[in-house]
Write a structure and sequence with these properties.
- The complex is a heterodimer of chains A (about 325) and B (about 250).
- With about 325 residues, chain A is α/β, with parallel strands linked by helices.
- Chain A folds into two domains: about 220 residues, 3-Layer(aba) Sandwich (Rossmann fold), CATH 3.40.50.300; about 70 residues, Alpha-Beta Plaits, CATH 3.30.70.3100.
- Chain A is about 35% helix and about 30% strand.
- Chain A has a six-stranded mixed sheet with strand order 6-7-8-3-9-10, sandwiched between helices.
- In chain A, strand 9 and strand 10 form a beta hairpin.
- The radius of gyration of chain A is 25 Å and the shape is elongated.
- By secondary structure, chain B is mainly α.
- In chain B, helix 3 packs antiparallel against helix 12 and helix 7 packs across helix 9.
- Chains A and B meet through helix 2, strand 6 and helix 3 of A and helix 1 and helix 6 of B.
């Protein structure tokens, strides 16, 4: 659906996007993740056909966004950062105006506006003036606008920014439901959002794509550094000896806590999950076990890990 | 083509959605009324050999409207959309740059036409109460309106260009107001030059806004004026189009 090859965008004296390449398949929900100034918005602006690339090509549904711009734009629903709208217009009127701009006929635009208003929960505010709506509703108007012409590709630049938790949840559900019928590209710097919505993550930093994989795969890749925490009522020396003897445990650290309990922090070899084994061992030895957990790397750790060396280099 | 009409409708409606449109019309009606009063005072003191329409151009308020309306009408066209970001949502729909420029200019021009309608009422009053049938004939009225529209197109197209060049409505308005003043200054200078037949005088007479308008208000349609105003309007619109397109080569 999206083919980006060697895309570079330079502004006067600054390279915003530096030779990136990626593809997005039809029906995928892909998250573009990165700190502010990483080049996410620039990438999206080039993808949406608003700005040309300095070099490299971008094709959407087989159409070059620069040379076949109109055909490509017909297939894209784009919601820019900060979701600009015409505040003086009424919701329904605005959506109809946008539908007509995107080439829908009079009857068809009526039909589609009704559908997207239902889809985005705007039916009750159809006659309200956009400028008087709450931020959550305005965000939904932006989404409805992006969807109104049934685009094959939906590009959303930070769609949940500035919303309260309820509104964020509503918008996320809406976006999640778009997968399958639409290809969705979302940019954000909010990590849990990507974990919840996206099938694939592209981590961008300093204009480059540093990682591209599913959130699960990224976590698995990082799992080498995961830890298992067990609190067991047993003598400290015994525990040290036991962990020493287990080949699956790469590193361990045992410390006494309150009462008879010792806290063991184990680093398993190759990110293995040893919890079942430890539980079996404890019951076999008759030790009391009050905590057994595995700390998984959150996307946040991965993100920090991936972008960290560069940040330090810069500093 | 249908996209042009959709855009035109929205642009024209946006003048009426906001208070601005009504303020401009009210202000214009007020100034037209002032001009009318001056005209009536003039007429009641002594008889005049020139057509009423030409006398209208002798009143200063009419010129104020021509000078001030263009910046006010055009400043928001592109600058506001760029400042709020709606320019981005507009240009990422499958619309052509030409359609956008044409729709915005046409909307401003149509509003300008609507804005001048109260003047008809003033002329009607003069026509109704005058004893002379020749005081106000369709030719002079048509000529006067043609002059107003030609000058309007000229200033509005420059206003479009100024608005397309800037992100700030204020800057756009200042630039187009400065342009308006410069044209007035040139016109004064041209008007006060001694008349001769050399090419410099010919050139200056092209820039003589007051002379051109007065000719038109007498019902004398000079093709030079027609060509001058139409061609400069097209040049400014063409430049506006290039500015809008320029985001593709930056």
């Amino acid at each position: 659906m999206i083919e980006v090859s060697n895309l570079t965008k330079r502004y006067a004296g600054r390279t915003a996007v530096d030779d990136i390449s990626f593809t997005v398949e039809r029906g995928e929900i892909v998250g573009l993740l990165g700190p502010n100034g990483a080049g996410k918005s620039t990438t999206m602006r080039v993808l949406s056909g608003f700005m040309p690339a300095t070099s490299g090509t971008v094709r959407v549904a087989g159409f070059d966004v620069f040379y076949d711009s109109e055909e490509a734009r017909r297939r894209i629903g784009y919601m820019p950062e900060n979701n600009p709208l015409h505040p003086e217009m009424r919701v329904r009127e605005y959506l109809k105006f946008r539908a007509r701009l995107k080439g829908l006929g009079w009857g068809r635009s009526r039909e589609r506006v009704t559908t997207v208003m239902e889809q985005c929960g705007l039916t009750d505010v159809g006659r309200r003036v956009i400028g008087q709506l709450s931020k959550g509703y305005r965000q939904r108007v932006g989404l409805a606008d992006a969807l109104v012409h049934e685009p094959e590709l939906v590009i959303l630049d930070e769609p949940t920014i500035g919303l309260d938790p309820h509104q964020i949840r509503a918008v996320r559900t809406l976006i999640k439901n778009l997968g399958g019928q639409h290809t969705v590209l979302i940019s954000t710097h909010i990590l849990p959002e990507v974990e919840m919505m996206c099938g694939r993550v592209l981590i961008m930093f300093n204009g480059r794509v540093l990682a591209s994989d599913t959130p699960d795969n990224l976590q698995r890749r990082m799992a080498g550094g995961s830890q298992i925490i067990a609190e067991i009522a047993a003598p400290l020396e015994t525990l040290n000896a036991v962990w020493e003897g287990l080949p699956e445990v790469e590193q361990f650290d045992v410390s006494a806590t309150d009462g008879d309990y010792c806290r063991c922090a184990l680093t398993p070899r190759d990110g293995m999950d040893l919890r079942a084994q430890i539980a079996a061992l404890a019951s076999q030895q008759g030790w009391a076990l009050r905590e057994l957990s595995r700390s998984r790397h959150s996307l946040e750790d991965i993100y920090v890990q991936v972008t960290k060396p560069r940040t330090e280099e810069q500093e | 083509m249908s996209i042009f009409w959709v855009l035109l409708r929205r642009e024209l409606a946006s003048y009426f959605f906001s208070v601005t449109g009504y303020v401009i019309i009210a202000f214009n009606t007020f100034l037209t009324g002032e001009s009318f009063e001056q005209l009536i005072n003039g007429l009641s003191s002594d008889p005049s050999p020139v057509p009423v329409t030409q006398m209208f151009f002798g009143t200063s308020y009419i010129w104020m409207i021509v000078l001030l309306s263009a910046p006010v009408l055009t400043m928001r066209l592109f600058a506001l959309e760029k400042a709020t970001g709606t320019f981005e949502t507009l240009m990422t729909t499958p619309v052509g740059d030409l359609e956008v420029v044409a729709a915005k200019f046409t909307a401003a021009f149509l509003f300008y036409v609507i804005m001048w309608l109260p003047l008809l009422a003033c002329l009607f009053l003069v026509g109704h109460f005058t004893s002379q049938a020749g005081a106000l004939d369709p030719g002079t009225v048509g000529g006067m309106y043609l002059g107003i529209f030609l000058a309007g197109g000229f200033f509005l197209s420059f206003g479009c260009l100024a608005s397309a060049l800037s992100r700030s409505q204020m800057v756009a308005a200042m630039v187009s107001l400065a342009f308006g003043f410069s044209q007035f200054a040139v016109a004064y200078w041209a008007m006060n030059r001694p008349v001769s037949d050399d090419w410099q005088s010919q050139l200056w007479s092209c820039l003589d806004l007051f002379g051109r308008m007065t000719d038109l208000a007498r019902g004398a349609v000079d093709t030079r004026a027609l060509i001058f105003y139409l061609s400069t309007t097209f040049v400014f619109l063409f430049l506006t189009l290039r500015v809008v397109e320029s985001r593709r080569w930056k």
